Amino acid sequence: MEAASNSGPWGLAGRRAVVAGALGGIGQVIAAAFREAGAHVLLTDLTDASAAVEAVNAAGFDPRMYAACDLTSEDEVRALCDRAAEAFGGLPDIVCVHAGVVGSHPVVGYPIEAFDELMRVNLRGSFLLASEAARRWLAVEAPGTLVFTTSWVQDVPWPDIGPYSASKAAVRSLMRTFARELAPRGIRSNAVAPGIVGVGMARRQWDTDPAYRSRAQRAIPLGRLQTPESVADAVLFLASPLSAYMTGATLLVDGGASLYPMDE
Ligand SMILES: NC(=O)c1ccc[n+]([C@@H]2O[C@H](COP(=O)([O-])OP(=O)(O)OC[C@H]3O[C@@H](n4cnc5c(N)ncnc54)[C@H](O)[C@@H]3O)[C@@H](O)[C@H]2O)c1
C-alpha cells in the first residue's frame, strides 16, 4: 500500500475503509472523500470487476482496489472480506454499509417480489456485511467501526416507498443492536440518515417522476437538494476519531426534510 498523502481534518490518514455501494451516486463521493482524507479505500459494488474498470479508473482509484460483491450472498460477502484483508494487508478499520435499493409503488398493490428483493438487499445485505466484518474484528479483538446508511424516511412515511422506509427503520434497529452488543469489545456502530440527495436513486426519480419532483420540491426546509458531499462529511465524521464517543447514533443530515409534513 502506498503511504497516505495527507491527513485532513478527520484523523483518517492511513485508515482502511471498505465502501459498499461505491459505484452509486453517493457511494462514489464517499469513497473519494475517504481517499482525500488520506484513507486507503476498497470499493465494492455489484458490477463485475472487468465492467467496473472504467468507472473505477475515472474515479481515480486503482482497479485492484475494487471488488465485485452481491451483498445478499453469504459466500460473496465472505470473499469480499477476504479480499479486503488481502488488499489492505490486514482487516479494515471502517466498513461503510452503504449499498441500497428503492422501489416506488403505492403500499396497496406493492408487488411482493419487489418487496422481497428490496428487503434482501437493504436488510439482509446490510446484516451480512456488518456481521461478517464484526466477526473478523472480534476474532482478533480489533476496534472496528461500522457506518450504516439509512434515510430520513426511516421515521417519516413518504408516499410509494413504504417498504423502503421499513427497511431503513430495520437497518437503524440493526445498527443499534450491533452498537449495543459490540461496544464492550471496542466496536462502534452508527448510521447516517440522508435526506433527498441530488444524485443516485432520488435523482433518478426526480428526473423521471413529475409527481415525486413536485412533492420533493416542497419537502426540504433548506430549499435545495442535498449534495452527496454532505452525506460523505457525515460518514467521515462517524468513521473518524472525532466521533469516538458515539455509538448507536443516527446522524440525521436531511436539510430539515423530517421537520414538517411535506404534502401541505
Ligand atoms: N439518493 C438519496 O436521496 C438517498 C437518500 C437517503 C438514503 N440514501 C441511501 O444511500 C445509499 C446510496 O444510494 P444512492 O442514491 O447513491 O443510490 P444508487 O442506486 O446510485 O447507489 C446504490 C448502489 O448500491 C448498489 N447495490 C444495489 N444492490 C446491491 C447488492 N445486492 N450488493 C451490492 N451492491 C448493491 C448499486 O449497484 C448501486 O451502485 C442507499 O443505501 C440509499 O438507500 C439515498
Automatic annotation (TrEMBL):
InterPro entries: NAD(P)-bd_dom_sf (IPR036291), Sc_DH/Rdtase_CS (IPR020904), SDR_fam (IPR002347)
Family membership noted in the UniProt record: Belongs to the short-chain dehydrogenases/reductases (SDR) family.
Protein's name according to its UniProt entry: SDR family oxidoreductase
Lineage, uppermost ranks: Bacteria, Bacillati, Actinomycetota, Actinomycetes, Kitasatosporales
